[in-house]
Amino acid sequence: MVALKMTSSYSPAQVAEYLEFIGLDQSFHPSANPVLDLSYLTTLFVHQITAVPYENLLIHYSPDHVVKLDPQVLFTKIVTNRRGRGGYCMENSILFNHMLRALGFDDAYTAGVRIRLRTNGVPAGPYTGFVHVVNVVTLPADRAAPPSPAAAPLQRYALDVGFGGDGPTVPMPLVEDLVHHNSIGTQEIRYVRGFVPTQRFRGEGAARMWIYQYRNAVDKPWNSFYAFSAEFEFMENDFNVVSHFTSQAPESPQSKTLLAIRFFRGEGRVPGEVRVTGKVMLVNGEVKRNVTGKTELVKTCVTEPERVEALKEYFGIELTPEEIESIRGRVPELKGVAA
User: How many of the other CB atoms lie within 10 Å of CB of 294?
Assistant: First the structure.
């Protein structure tokens, strides 16, 4: 595989600001010549997803309800403004992609993802069109982790920093049937290779997809959540088309549901490691938390002031008065009466 060196939109000063923001010291800065191995990549990934929440508030709590994907706009919103903001998948993934490249992962690129929507909390039914993206990074075999074959000079990893609650909490090597513990409780995750049901061409040369699956315990069934081809790169114009549908189309779940997910960070099982230790989730008016493998309801919001306060208390997200007022008339607006 030949990869062209791709430039980043972020300067060395912005890289330093980002590292400080996510809680990493300057030994991770390119000026310190760090080894870009799996340990580095994993630490960076965990700090990213625990510092930058998944949230689609811009669709609902903003005057124009428009998601802007310019890397500099994203940097200002997420890193510079310091109001606890993150973004939905394309916002978080584009920021992370440009940061990966600025840090020295020259071949980092994004791949388009088809997902399955949830029914009663479980992914079900057909796959959607492209509504999600993941980053793909390649490491030399001597900087990757087993089970990379000794003869293979490279190992690709998928890094999903914008999927939310059941998303992977570690970089995932593109290796079939390799099971990973997903940090919280007993949930396990893996990739398998296969065709999605609506694929018609399955003959010679047909592209099998990487299918992300999870199960909540070893005695539970695997659930297929999303699928992508690592050979199909998403570029700026693709982002714009997908983001417009995802954020604006009436039939898009994002236009009807208000979401926020923040992961908690703690010490790993090996000294010096970090890992995800839990998560808190907001879906419309319900705040739920999971730190043991079991999800508990911690708050139900019925009014806008209650939800705005919950966003600050549980997620560290502070909205401006103008943003708060802009949800009036939107589908997710809470119109209940305070007790």
Answer: 11
